[in-house]
Specification:
The chain is built from 16 helices and six strands. The chain is of the alpha+beta class. InterPro entries: CdaR-like_regulators (IPR051448), CdaR_GGDEF (IPR041522), PucR_C-HTH_dom (IPR025736), PucR_C-HTH_sf (IPR042070), RsbRD_N_dom (IPR025751).
Length: 412
């Protein structure tokens, strides 16, 4: 009786197939609006039903079956379009349920003996579960293989296009946008993100990409960021900013990084517009990254190229030996890697930044102006000269100490 019901399903395929196909399209939102995918689903559905019917009628074990070509093509196309594998598996589960309901109705119609109908339904259920288990395992494997291959190819295309874009050799902006999947005609903020986390490479990169997404959300980005891994623990990203968003408030980012990924660090470029701004912001982010890496464990969670002093510090990283000589000559004992010396250096730098104003420095340091005077007297005593002597060299040396830390400081 079960084989007869399966054969009846085969005979009804021209009617059953379109009905089930329409139901699946209705129940799986990811498929709506993509006609080529919808057409492939129908081919896959009908070839699967035909194979199931043949195996049931002939009592062929699923191990002897060959996966329908249409089912393979459908799985691969879903992977290429970035549609979740859940949509793929769900179609098989929903299809099985619909067919079992069809068999129940058919058996009730043609078999008057309830016991015979029940046994036939149980047999069809066993066959359908065996078939769905076999076919879904294989089409999901095809999907995952195709997805890996497609992503690897897409990454190669994106990497090549990004390399050319950063080198200034891309003339077709629209082609670049299509390859990157990112709009270049807008304002951008570039980031470099890296971590010392000991998780597997895939997990590290996934978490870094997620962090860049959270940064984009926090800064009010107008769309999804563009992220591309550079190695196992570092990635580059770009955040799309809205019109006029040339200076987003990044003050809350250190807290965000601490909460989301404590082992991660961020380097930010200065915002820029258009393709030129996309490239320039990235260069700034790389320079800020160099400053942070040079500072090592003393670096903050976020280093921005737009922060006062970072541009100068980036230049000073080009020749660290010369920078150390500058620090030693300009600061002497005040260039020691020592907490007390660090307080005096910060006070002196803020004083110079405030154009030698005690009140201005006190406001920046959140201390009383008499505290500033006391610290400056102590600092100039160690220097052995007034700050007015070579203020530019002094400010460069202090900037190097603030941003580069132990890399340019002398031992205690």
């Amino acid at each position: 009786m079960a084989a007869e019901a399966a054969a009846a399903l085969g005979a009804e395929l021209p009617t059953v197939g379109p009905t089930l196909h329409a139901r699946l399209v209705e129940l799986i939102p990811e498929l709506r609006g993509d006609q080529p995918i919808i057409d492939l689903l129908q081919d896959s559905l009908e070839s699967n039903i035909a194979l199931f019917v043949d195996s049931a009628v002939q009592a062929r074990p699923v191990e002897e079956l060959a996966l329908p070509a249409a089912a393979v093509e459908y799985a691969r196309r879903l992977a290429q379009c970035g549609i979740s594998s859940n949509a793929l598996a769900r179609a098989y589960r929903l299809g099985q349920r619909w067919l079992l309901d069809w068999f129940t109705v058919e058996l009730g119609r043609v078999e008057p003996d309830a016991r015979v109908a029940y046994l036939a339904a149980a047999r069809l259920q066993t066959w359908s579960f065996a078939y769905i288990d076999w076919v879904s395992e294989r089409v999901v494997a095809e999907y995952e293989h195709e997805r890996e291959q497609w992503l690897a190819n897409q990454n190669r295309v994106r990497t090549t296009m990004l390399t050319d874009l950063l080198a200034g050799t891309v003339a077709d902006t629209a082609a670049a946008e299509r390859a990157l999947g990112y709009r270049l005609r807008g304002h951008h903020l570039a980031v470099v993100v890296w971590t010392a986390d000991t998780e597997s490479p895939a997990q590290r990169l996934h978490r870094l990409e997620r962090l860049v997404t959270r940064v984009a959300e926090t800064l009010g980005a107008t769309g999804a960021p563009f992220f591309l891994a550079q190695d196992r623990a570092r990635g580059w990203g770009w955040l799309p900013l809205g019109p006029g968003r040339t200076g987003p408030d990044t003050a809350g980012l250190p807290r965000l990084v601490e909460a989301e990924e404590p082992a991660a660090r961020l380097a930010l470029g200065a915002p820029g517009a258009g393709t030129a701004g996309f490239v320039a912001s990235h260069r700034g982010a790389l320079r800020a990254y160099t400053v942070a890496v040079t500072a090592g464990v003393r670096a903050g969670r976020v280093t921005s190229y737009a922060d006062p002093g970072v541009r100068a510090a980036a230049l000073l990283t080009a020749d660290l030996a010369a920078t150390r000589e500058l620090v030693a000559a300009a600061l002497g004992p005040l260039g020691a890697d020592d907490p007390a010396a660090a307080v005096l250096r910060e006070t002196l730098l803020e004083f110079l930044t405030a154009q030698c104003s005690y009140v201005g420095a006190a406001g920046r340091l959140h201390v009383h102006k008499n505290t500033v005077k006391y610290r400056l007297e102590k600092a100039t005593g160690i220097l052995g000269r007034p700050v007015e002597n070579d203020p530019l060299g002094l400010e460069l040396a202090l900037t190097a100490c603030r941003w580069l830390g132990p890399a340019v400081l002398s031992g205690r």
